[in-house]
Amino acid sequence: MTRKLYYEDSHIREFDAVVSSCAEREGFFEIVLDKTAFFPEGGGNPADTGTLGSVNVLHTFEREGEVVHRCDSPLEAGSAVHGAIDWDRRFSNMQNHSAEHIVSGIVHRRHGFANVGFHMGEDGVIVDFDGFMDDGELSDVEREANEAVWRDAPVTAWFPSPEELGRIAYRSKLELTENVRLVAVEGVDVCACCAPHVKRTGEIGVIKIFESIRRKNGVRLRMLAGSRAYEDYVKRAGAVSEISALLSAKQDDVAGAVERLLRERDELNYKLGGLKRQMIGGKVSAMDKTDGTALFFEPDLDMKELQLLANAAREKCAVAAAFSGVDGAGYKYALASKTVDLRETSRRVNAALNGRGGGRPELVTGTVNATREEIEGYWR
Length: 380
Known about the structure:
Elements: E1 3-4, H1 5-8, E2 14-25, E3 28-33, E4 35-36, E5 50-52, E6 55-63, E7 66-71, E8 80-85, H2 87-111, E9 115-121, E10 124-129, H3 135-150, E11 155-158, H4 162-166, E12 182-185, E13 189-192, E14 207-215, E15 218-225, H5 226-247, H6 254-286, E16 293-297, H7 303-313, E17 319-326, E18 330-336, H8 342-352, E19 355-360, E20 363-368, H9 372-379
Parallel strand pairs: 1-4, 16-17
Antiparallel strand pairs: 2-3, 2-8, 3-7, 5-6, 5-8, 6-7, 9-10, 10-15, 11-12, 12-13, 14-15, 17-18, 18-20, 19-20
């Protein structure tokens, strides 16, 4: 069985070992060592990557007590090898996993909710709780979590005896009875966990909860800590700076500037809607009465405006057919009539012009994937 150095010291970056076995499988080489600092995937924590000599470790997993290193090249059984884990990746994972323990411990103590789901990915840590917290409550959780970081509290991990385990109150998603490893954040949390963690909370740096989504009877949080939180802050600050420049507003007033811009947009849209209604009225007033179909093409009308045009024009024709769009992207349409049941008309139009839609006898709407020339040709 592999000696697991990551349990002895989570901060071991390099080590020397002997190759126990090497087997090719599915185009890769599965290498087992007598000891390793590579943490295998487990408990929601990603696997370590790195190198064994000149060989790249692409993935690490556990099989029957052995840690298997999936590599891109073979190593000879019995040979000595120097291992080096990707420390930046490992340390970031430890920062985020330890941060999750702190947040989950605080949530459990404050609200009694359990962590029922946990995943660490490149875009953040996802945590599911079996109860709902509002923004104010989550803000208080985040503040207390960062206070735990600023205290630089010790983080310890150990395998308690069955007798000791029975005397300890700890969090766990599963009912565990043997080989239980506990991770304790002093004054904050004790939780069963198999992954490497920081040694002191100060190593985490900062904890940030970015969003919460209500799910069934609980809430899903996305959070980041440490270097990933810092990198995310740099990216967001850069975006705010660009928006500030575009809006000619101070960075701490970009939200207000966007609100003003949206109000101006709404006012312009209202005015534009009025102008479009005037244009529709003018077109209908200028058209001659006909017993046939009146065909309209307007490039910038939405569906409500198309319906307004068709309904107004049907007073002067048997069928008013209003289209809006461009060749290549397709056209929206509205058909209106006071004398013709348009449901069958709509079926014929859709069949001839690769369209879809429907409606009431006096008004149908839809879309067609055809050119203007094809549409005009159909109505001729």
